[in-house]
Design brief:
By secondary structure, this protein is of the alpha+beta class. It has 2 domains: about 15-140, 2-Layer Sandwich (GTP Cyclohydrolase I, domain 2), CATH 3.30.1130; about 150-260, GTP Cyclohydrolase I, domain 2, CATH 3.30.1130. It has helices at about 35-40, 85-95, 105-120, 215-220, 230-245; strands at about 30, 50-60, 70-80, 85, 130-135, 150, 180-190, 200-210, 250-255, 265-270. An 8-stranded mixed beta sheet has the order 5-3-2-10-9-8-7-6. Strands 1-4 form a two-stranded antiparallel ribbon. Strand 2 and strand 3 (about 70-80) form a beta hairpin. The longest helix is centred in the middle third of the chain and has 17 residues, at about 105-120. Its main location: cytoplasm. Homodimer.
């Protein structure tokens, strides 16, 4: 019987050797379904579409003459993949490029594309790809900063007393006409599932449906403060809770987490197919 890898067996929280020669075996995929089971989600009946947008800020390799090269890399990982990649293993994998020689940036991109695709689709009945965009240093100074749009929930003067997710806080005006609005907050914080280290983020919630009680929604966002889950899992939990308790017609939940170890992770889950937003970092990222 094949045993699925679990977070406690990952490199997280463990002393790790930093390998500087290309090694794709450093990638540690983790199945998404274990956490989705907690939310009652079936793999073939997900209530959302979306992707995880990763940005790698510390990517370097050697050209054939031994001269260091650098780039930023943006990854798009569909939420339908059976696995995520544990973030420390992702960093260790990227470090393995540091003293490896490649003939071109296209060769580096091809390695990244093949390796990440294999890891996140491992065990699936079919194999698909991920998105990989190499960002050249010549355009670094053109990259914008952009805060998440929407009405700022943080303006509300509220009492907060829950620091574990409390979906029962959510309320909506079911006896009133549906509305369409976008709400955002910079007060999202959760903790790493394994190490307990803090993960800071901003979240945007766009919906059409019964008006959601904004004060209670902000209290709900704050209630993740001491919760231990990976970024992707937190966003899926938010989506499911809001979908269940507020019953919107349409819903999109998008979070941008600050980087740790040279990586940021920005999950988006939406009830309807849509174009993904540009992977533009916020000021805190």
């Amino acid at each position: 019987m094949t045993v699925s890898p679990s977070p406690e067996h990952s490199p997280l929280g463990q002393r790790s050797a930093y390998i500087d020669q290309y090694d794709p075996t450093l990638l540690f995929p983790l199945p998404r379904q274990a956490k989705r089971d907690e939310l009652g989600l079936q793999p073939d009946k997900l209530p959302f579409f979306g992707a995880d947008l990763w940005t790698a800020y510390e990517v370097s390799w050697l050209n054939l003459r031994g001269k260091p090269q650098v780039a930023l890399v943006s990854f798009t990982i569909p939420c339908e993949t059976p696995n995520i990649v544990e973030s420390k293993s992702f960093k260790l994998y990227l470090n393995s490029f540091n003293n490896s020689r490649f003939g071109s940036v296209d060769e580096v991109r091809a390695k990244l594309l093949a390796d990440i695709s294999e890891a996140v689709w491992r065990g699936a009945p079919y194999q698909a790809s991920v998105g990989v965009q190499m960002i050249d240093p010549e355009v670094f100074d053109t990259l914008p900063l952009q805060e998440l749009d929407g009405l700022n929930l943080d303006r509300l003067d509220i009492d907060c007393e829950h620091y574990q997710p409390q979906p029962q806080l959510l309320r909506a005006a079911f006896d009133e006409a549906p509305i369409t609005e976008t709400l955002s907050s910079r007060l999202l914080k959760s903790n790493c599932l394994v190490t307990g280290q803090p993960d800071w983020g901003s979240v945007r919630i766009s919906y059409t449906g019964p008006a959601i009680d904004q004060e209670r929604l902000l209290q709900y966002i704050v209630s993740f403060r001491n919760h231990n889950e990976f970024h992707e899992q937190c966003v899926e939990r938010m989506f499911v809770d809001i979908w269940k308790h507020c019953k919107p017609i349409r819903l999109t939940v998008y979070a941008r987490y600050t980087r740790r170890g040279g990586l940021d992770i920005n999950p988006l889950r939406t009830s309807q197919p849509m174009a993904l937003p540009a992977n533009i970092r916020t000021a805190r990222q």
